[in-house]
Amino acid sequence: MEGEEDMIKLFVSDLDDTLVYDVNHMQKEDERALCWLAEKGTNICFASGRFTHRIDEVVKRFSFPYYTTGLNGATMLLPDGNLFHESSFENVVAQEIYRYIYKKGLADIVCANEQRYTKRKNEHHHNFEAYMGVHIAEIEALEEEFGKTVHPAKLFVFGEEEKIVTLDQELRDTFQGEAEVFISGKRYVDIMPRGVSKGSALKRLMDHLQIEANEVACIGDSFNDISMFEVTPHSFTLHHAHPYVKEKANHIVRSVEEAVMKLPLLV
């Protein structure tokens, strides 16, 4: 392989259904590829819709230092664990959107303070808790606490895939210009503060590391990864990704390992 002087300087990987499957399983080949890349001197960043601590639960097996982008860019951590950047919703906007998604009868969830909140749980919330192995706290007057005890960084809805696809378009039409809306998984639609995305987080990290777009590569499989694809020419997605996501990436691969092995050919 080429020496580190010819390697990509930053590699960003999505987690769920890209590097991680079934909440916390990772292929050994992908693990080894990332370790090899880090040994070559490439900075590694894990970018996900998850909370940063939920990212760390999966990737702390790695001995190399890594950057963390959580909640689609709302929270960013340096390799030493210190906070690098944090974003949250304007209270009025979050209240308006939350009231809208609450009426849908799906699992409406507010991410704030490293906790998940809802007004009142239904079967969809219970299904999410069981699948992810997490807890959602109930607060009856939830939206009234926005800006007081709860500072929303991300809102999302979990439910049947067909309903989520419909809701995604509804939210885009209704809150255009007020929020970033995208499907982050087959049963999820995420709503982020305006201007907050994995792509904006990647630009911030590039500025911090003082590197250019052609020195960066990224991989992801969902709509929330497209903003990263727009930042660098070295974008990868997976064969199982939605056709629209595949259109937006410059390379289609079967695994993180395959993407990493292609990197020396890009520089």
UniProtKB/TrEMBL annotation:
Give a yes or no for keyword Hydrolase in this entry. Answer: yes
Ordered alphabetically, the record's keywords are: Hydrolase
Q: Would the keyword Hydrolase turn up in this protein's UniProt record?
A: yes
Q: Which GO terms describe its molecular function?
A: magnesium ion binding; phosphatase activity
Highest taxon in the source lineage: Bacteria
Cite the InterPro entries for this sequence. Cof (IPR000150), HAD-like_sf (IPR036412), HAD-SF_hydro_IIB (IPR006379), HAD_sf (IPR023214)
A Gene Ontology cellular-component term: cytosol
Any matching Pfam family: Hydrolase_3
Name-wise, this protein is Cof-like hydrolase
Biological source species? Bacillus cereus VD196
